[in-house]
Amino acid sequence: MVQPSVERVSIPYLHELKKKKEKITALTAYDYPTAKILDDCGVDIILVGDSLGMVMLGYETTLPVTMDEMIHHTKAVTRARKRAMVIGDMPYLSFHLSLKDSVMNAARFIKEAGADGVKLEGASPQRLILVEALVEAEIPVMGHVGLTPQSIRKIGGFKVQGTEEEKAEAIYRGALELEKAGAFAVVLESVPQELAREITRSLKIPTIGIGAGPDCDGQILVIHDLLGFTTGYMPKFVKRYADLAGIISQAVNDYINDVKQNRYPEDQHSYHLKKEKAGPFLQRLRKKFGQGKS
Ligand code: KIV
Question: Is the dihedral of CA 55, 48, 106, 126 positive or negative?
């Protein structure tokens, strides 16, 4: 466990870490027990990502996730948090229509769910206007460029972005403009390490990488990927630190076998009547309800 050096992670603290070249740690969480473990371990940022649609709700993409679902899960996470900064991820279509509705949706994360800020994908001119409006409304914003899963239909798959110069330039410019618009940090997802290094050097705000190499100011992973709780396709950048799916399968199989073989529950898992009361007590029950009744 790391020794957390602040009682509550703040934006100035994260900026200080960048200055001191101390890495920022971030992970996703979507529920109370997971968030509690991450917070106790001293992770700096807990992101309630819209990845919840895929890893918790079983959708193929993040697109169906709603504001209400995000608020529900963010509330569970903030109930568990003592030290970490909690960021709520703005789901698809919650910040694409009117500026007013977008600000109101972002404000729900703060007012209703107790989050410390929001994350939103993209750096189009409209997005930058929104970032400015959110900052003006005292809502801290984490940007997100590179692979932006909400654009999956346009991108055509979860693949590395910015390998060609034109796209790399757009990602670079996007990150710079997000900083200018007031974002306090920016996620770089699935971009070449060399590009992430250049962007990280150019920005005053921290970069948080996922599939962006080791030179970002911090790293984030989806907790289910790190724990081996998800099965199936896994991006190259994921490091599995555990095989939770294997551990759970083993435990559930053991349980099924124990129940079938009458090995569970044992005496230690059972309640008993007091010995002196049991005889007459059971006799009366039998008389009333069954076996003892004549
Ligand atoms: O939704 C999410 O979990 C994310 C992270 C992968 C950065 O956006």
Answer: negative
